[in-house]
């Protein structure tokens, strides 16, 4: 191979090497494709398709929360009948227990239709709240714990219900969210009517988006 041919061969090798490096750089720089579930965009994963529309992880979590609310609020309402000396607190407890009994029957029926297995016990936080109520001295101490723990819990689930109602693609979940929303709003008002809720201890609303 003469000198001219050698130079051409070297040039070809350099061009080939450059193309390889450039291809690797492009592959590294390009963003990865989002997962099929849409998780990268913050969207809930679809668990299954049902006759009333897709059922997502957010829909299922909503059903879980409603079920667990009943599992601790029914005992709380019943406890108010024996540990409170305040007739208003007793009445609020009675209404909450009765309403959650109805709501529990509805969520169990809906879950059975959608093929969702619901929890059989409260969450760890709810167990702690029940323990606080149990440990509280009868009378005013119990009343304060009862009103504030239940008001905080209703505020938390109220936000979840609003998000599910606004975004679910499942007709049955949407309708049940409206039912649950009416119960939760009613209960927040009832708990506040006792005059025992310390609003300064409730979470602040989120700051406006900029």
UniProtKB/TrEMBL annotation:
Spell out the InterPro entries in the cross-references.
DUF4142, Ferritin-like
Query: Highest taxon of the source?
Result: Bacteria
**Keywords on this record?**
Membrane, Transmembrane, Transmembrane helix
Q: Does the keyword Iron-sulfur apply?
A: no
Q: Domain DUF4142: where?
A: 58-189
Q: Which residues cross the membrane?
A: 12-30
In terms of Gene3D superfamilies, this protein maps to: 1.20.1260.10
Q: Is Coiled coil tagged as a keyword?
A: no
Give one Pfam hit by family name. DUF4142
- The name on file for this protein is Putative outer membrane protein
Q: Which organism is it from?
A: Thermopolyspora flexuosa
């Amino acid at each position: 191979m003469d000198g001219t041919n050698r130079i051409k061969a070297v040039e070809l090798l350099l061009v080939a090497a450059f193309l390889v490096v450039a291809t690797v750089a492009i592959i590294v720089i390009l963003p990865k494709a989002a997962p099929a579930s849409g998780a990268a965009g913050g969207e809930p994963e679809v668990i299954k398709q049902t006759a009333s529309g897709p059922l997502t992880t957010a829909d299922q979590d909503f059903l879980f929360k409603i079920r667990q609310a009943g599992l601790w609020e029914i005992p709380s309402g019943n406890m108010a009948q024996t540990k409170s000396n305040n007739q208003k607190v007793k009445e609020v407890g009675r209404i909450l227990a009765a309403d959650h009994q109805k709501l529990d029957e509805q969520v169990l029926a809906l879950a059975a239709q959608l093929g969702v297995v619901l929890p059989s016990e409260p969450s760890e936080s709810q167990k702690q709240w029940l323990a606080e109520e149990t440990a509280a001295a009868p009378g005013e101490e119990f009343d304060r714990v009862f009103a504030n723990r239940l008001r905080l819990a209703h505020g938390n689930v109220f936000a979840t219900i609003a998000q599910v109602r606004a975004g679910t693609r499942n007709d049955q979940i949407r309708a049940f969210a409206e039912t649950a929303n009416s119960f939760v709003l009613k209960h927040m008002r009832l708990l506040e009517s006792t005059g025992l809720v310390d609003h300064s201890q409730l979470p602040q609303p989120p700051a406006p988006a900029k």
